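We store sequence with structure; for instance:
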Amino acid sequence: MRVEPATRPVKQTPADAPADADKRTDKVPRVADQAEPKTARVVSPARTDRAAPVRSSPVTRPRTFGRALLATAAATLVPGVGHLMLRRRRSGTLIVGVFVLLVLSAVLLVTTASRATLLANLLSTRVLVLLAVGALVAGAAWIAVIVRTYLLARPRPLGFGKQLVGVVVTAALCLVIAAPFGYAANLANAQRTFIEDLFGGDTGGTAAAEAIGKPRLNVLLVGSDAGPDREGTRTDTMMVASIDTRSGRTILFGLPRNLGHVPFPPESPMGKKFPDGFYNRADPLSGDYLLNAVYAWGRDHPQDAPATPTTDPGLNLLHQTISYMLGLELDYYVEVNMAGFAALIDALGGLWVDTGPNPVPVGGILPDGRRVKPDRYIPAGRQLLNGEDALAFARSRTDSTDYARMGRQRCLLQNLLTQKSPTDILVNFQAVANATTDSVSTNIPQAVLPSLAALAGEDTVRLESIAFDPSLPDPSRPDGKFSTARVNTEYMREVVQRAINGQPLPTVEPTATPRASASASVTPTPPPTGPQSLAEVCG
């Protein structure tokens, strides 16, 4: 087999190229042609006519000074609305939602909770602290939203004049919010301070835990009168309020200031000094040995008075005497200066009082007992009395008796409780606090206040009254009337227990009297057979 030697390819020149080279080059693609895609994308004529979507930035209104002030004002009306106007939807919705939630919660609380519950909370110092702090925080947050809204909305740059106007307007809007919230915080804090001052400290009365669980609370009410026209202090108004803590039924036991031979506990210093009662044999007609003089005796002779429940020996001695005389354990006391009582009536806007069929004289009796012309008269009928006139109505002695005056005082208490609710006291709190700060003292503890307020907030509260005066029948007396000249302690205790237990009072058998003439048609008032409703007596 023959093998031919390998030969090297001969490089051809263009001239040596075969004649059919052009034909082959037409069939072999060029390098440039190989780089191109082998298949071309066919575009439909319909797609070439459709425009591709174009993303655009959100259209925002240009910032203007007027729009900035408008957004700031909107944030003052409802926090968060200004943010929504500036298209800050997320933060604006959050702020508005929190605001609406808080408003709805407050409305729901006020409309669903009972009045007694609301009053009890408003007399709690802890709740008052939370209200004060909450008012400050809420006000500060609202102000921050207003300021932030303006800073976001104001255009830049801004001329000095517009900057000044913007700052002034924003500050004024902030003050619109700061004023009510600051007032609310100050009111809550002032009320807390008032409660802590008046009802704080070592009370010396019944412990709060024990008092809340007791079926009855007995409170001594004392109206003292010290003025430039009289020497020393006299307790012209003395009552004991016996309160049923479940039903709210309250009995006022009225004690005339002219009770004589008032007793003291036998083992006490006064009981040993006056074993037959408070009386001076050397001067039997002296007014210095009546019930209203016990307070002054304790002040002048502190060694004769017990050390509790207060630091005032005069009040301690009176407290001991009345407790022993009525056979009641007195849980607390409330002492009111009569001038402070007048200021309290003014603070509450006055009282509507039925003064009776005849005008009531103001003045007319001097401190030494001499009669002079009255200074003026309070008109008869239903009258709106200010503090001065209400006090004059309660104290008037001209053409009257101590017992009639006691009745007017009890009617004033009835009118005060029925016409002025605890809500009125809260609304006029600043004036009430100013009127009572230096004229009211008590040993009622703070912890008992919510329970008493809850009781006062109920509609079942009613006042009844028994006065230890000659209108009270006393079967042990020859004339069948209670004697104020020499008190019958055992009978007084019996009356108290019968009244508390809802039993009828002892009655007196009618005695035969001469037949009255035909012209005498006045029917005598029957003696009371039980506690009298002050709502019916006072009209």
